[in-house]
Amino acid sequence: MFNQSAQDSRSSAIEADSLESTTAVRLEGVTHQYGSGGGRLRSSDERTVTALRDVSFDVPMGSILGLEGPSGSGKSTILHAVAGLLVPTDGNVLLCGTDLTALSDAERTRMRRRHIGIVFQRFHLLPALSARANVALPLVQAGISRSDRRARATALLEAVGLGDRSTHLPGELSGGERQRVAIARALSTDPDVIVADEPTGELDTATGMDVLELLTDIGRDRAVLVASHDATTLSVADRVITLCDGRVDDVR
Amino acid sequence: MSDEPDDLPDGLETRRRRRWTGLFSLTVSRWWQRATGTTAGRIVSTVAAVALTIAFLLVVTGIALSLADGGVTTTDDATVHITPEAQQTLSSVDGVEGPRLGTTNERASTIRAHDGVAHASPVLIEAGRLEAGGDPQTVQLVGVVPDDESRTVAGVPTDALEEGDPHYANGSYDGPRTGEIVLSRTAADRLGASAGDDLTVSTSPRRTTNFSVTAVSETDGGDVGAPVALVHASELQSLSGAADGELADRMVIWGEPDASRSAAADAYPDASVTVTDTADPTALFDDGLAFATSVIALVVGVTICASFVATTMGMTVDEDRRTLAVLESVGVPARGRLAVIAISTGITTLVGSVVGVGLGAAGIAVVNAVASATVAPGAVAQFHPLFVPYGIAVAVLAGIVAVPYPLAVAARTSVLAEVGR
């Protein structure tokens, strides 16, 4: 669980104005161990697994960062830390100048709502909602009016080429269409950062290329972090970090 | 740090309202899609369980109300009812069936003399065996004092009875018997009797007399066709042994409500006076057995309903963890996610309660029909309009009792575990 006093000391003097104005994401010495906190029911002899070891990097606005590495190398853990879905055991994660590790759960949720869009490998659309309602979902919590939500979701679906599928349920869409709906959902709050975890992992090559084109377009005016095993997917990245056993092994 | 974005032009309250409205409509549309989709099984079974529980509760409460309120024979068009208080013995006498009012014929005359009172009549109810040449049938005999107006007592019009009560003869009970009897449609059908037929009526093996059918009502006795027969009050009192003390189960008064109530209170200051044309639910509080029955039904209903809702909604939430994880990933805070679960549980319970009220009304009709056709001479359960809010309120209470469990299941959802799958 989040320890407030520890977080207070860690929040330190990192301020927004100390970052370059173009830096969307900064990781500073991030280390994370699974099994070292956060669980409610935990046996005393549970072992910890170190997922990240002293990872640091920046992602400027308008760039795409690729994360590659074998399973268990820490790619998804980095994305979750950037999205504020987990608090690393050590180090700082700065999102648009705000240290996520110094925030409460509610504050991280708010930061995520305002600054982050997430694209999952398996889309994770709500099956009972139409494509448009799925895209509009993040706007509900933002307090946007119903008419504005519908208009914005419709425009985003048109932007990803699904204007004629807005009333369809996810079960009525192909894998590529679902992923495009998921991308539209990630863009609905106009976030500064998009994190995409294996965005083409469930798609065939041609559909995957369509999605990559979308991500390239998105990356022009925001930061995109893409985790993937696939070299083709990573080819859209301006920079690729290779992870191995939770460490940065290579940057190219 | 505030939970409100500061880059939107709308006010804080507006955004907050839109947020909750949006979450509510999101939950409703999700619930509807699931309830009408291919995976509707669990929601439908939960709604059915709530509905059956509420229906059971209402049927039992309807029986209790009937016990307390005297059954179908209260169906009349009178303005005011006077019934004995359960614990009162002042102007009433405790009979085998319960307390009765005393000196009713005399006091009815006094009540009739009040301004604003059109008519007053004692109502005596006795189960009797009627025979019209075929097999004897059990019928609810209802003794009344008719006047020259068209009135209804026990669901049967009094028009065909001679005005007044000549056999009463100022309390001597030696006046001429009219021998008139008016049958409800159900009673006539069972007896195979029609207007002009002679009937043998007995309220016990040693008390038998003859009546002549003056009319058969086109309407049934009460709500569900109870076999009822109207006779003159004094003739039934003589037949049943209630003449001694001029006993009756209730007094009914027609007229202006305030004047009728005042006249009733003057005549029977210690009795229960109600201005109503339907069953009185407060009668449940006056009858120990009925009250206990309804309370047990309430406790059992809430327990069963809450247990089922908690279990099935908990299982539903367990299957729905990925949705909660997605909501968290798009920035819906814990409070909002739990609200989605609570609203979903509330909708399920409410829909179940509405269906349950309908089933309860149908159940009461079925119980009455079965009872009427088999063991009872009339209706054994009553439906009251207050049963609608009562059933819904009980379901809401059960939902409130149940909701912590699905919320606890939801609160333990790990977004990382779910979105990583």
Report on this structure.
The complex is a heterodimer of chains A (252) and B (421). By secondary structure, chain A is an alpha/beta fold. Chain A has one domain: Rossmann fold (3-Layer(aba) Sandwich), CATH 3.40.50. Helix content of chain A is 33%, strand content 25%. Chain A is built from 8 helices and 10 strands. Chain A has helices at residues 4-11, 75-82, 105-115, 131-141, 146-159, 175-187, 205-218, 231-234, and strands spanning 23-34, 49-60, 64-68, 90-95, 98-99, 116-119, 193-197, 223-227, 239-244, 247-251. In chain A, α6 (175-187) packs parallel to α7. In chain A, 50% of the residues are buried. The model of chain A is unreliable at 1-20 and 38-44 (pLDDT under 50). Chain B has 421 residues and is α+β, with helices and mostly antiparallel strands. Chain B folds into 2 domains: 12-66 and 289-419, no CATH class; 77-276, no CATH class. Chain B is built from 12 helices and 13 strands. Chain B has helices at residues 12-36, 41-69, 104-112, 185-191, 233-240, 257-267, 288-319, 321-329, 334-373, 387-402, 404-411, 415-419, and strands at 80-83, 92-95, 98-101, 117-131, 137-144, 152-153, 156-157, 180-183, 198-204, 207-216, 228-232, 250-255, 272-275. A 6-stranded mixed β-barrel of chain B has the order 4-5-11-8-10-9, surrounded by 4 helices. In chain B, β6 and β7 (156-157) form a beta hairpin. In chain B, α1 (12-36) packs across α9, α2 (41-69) runs antiparallel to α7 and α2 crosses α9. The two termini of chain B are 32 Å apart. Classes of the chains: A alpha/beta (252), B alpha+beta (421). At the A-B interface, α3 and α4 of A face α1, α8 and α12 of B.
The radius of gyration over CA of chain B amounts to 29 Å
Q: Using the CA coordinates, give the radius of gyration of chain A.
A: 18 Å
Shape of chain B: elongated
Q: Proportion of β residues of chain B?
A: 15-25%
Please state the overall shape of chain A, judged from the principal axes of the Cα atoms.
globular
The low-confidence parts of chain B are 1-6, 87-96
Q: Major sheet of chain B: size, sense and barrel closure?
A: 6 strands, mixed, barrel
Please identify which CATH superfamily of chain A we are dealing with.
Answer: P-loop containing nucleotide triphosphate hydrolases
What count of helical segments of chain A does DSSP give?
8
Counting DSSP E segments of at least 2 residues, the number of strands of chain A comes to 10
Give the H and E element order of chain A: HEEEHEEHEHHHEHEHEE
Relative helix content of chain B: 40-55%
Share of helical residues of chain A: 25-40%
Strand order of the largest sheet of chain B: 4-5-11-8-10-9
Hey, roughly how much beta strand do the residues of chain A contain? 15-25%
The mean pLDDT of chain B is: 81
Number of strands of chain B: 13
Pair with the most extensive interface?
Answer: A-B, 40 and 41 residues
Structural class of chain A: alpha/beta
Protein name (chain A): ABC transporter-related protein
InterPro entries (chain A): AAA+_ATPase, ABC_transporter-like_ATP-bd, ABC_transporter-like_CS, ABC_transpr_LolD-like, MacB-like_ATP-bd, P-loop_NTPase
GO molecular function (chain A): ATP binding; ATP hydrolysis activity; transmembrane transporter activity
Keywords (chain A): ATP-binding, Nucleotide-binding, Transport
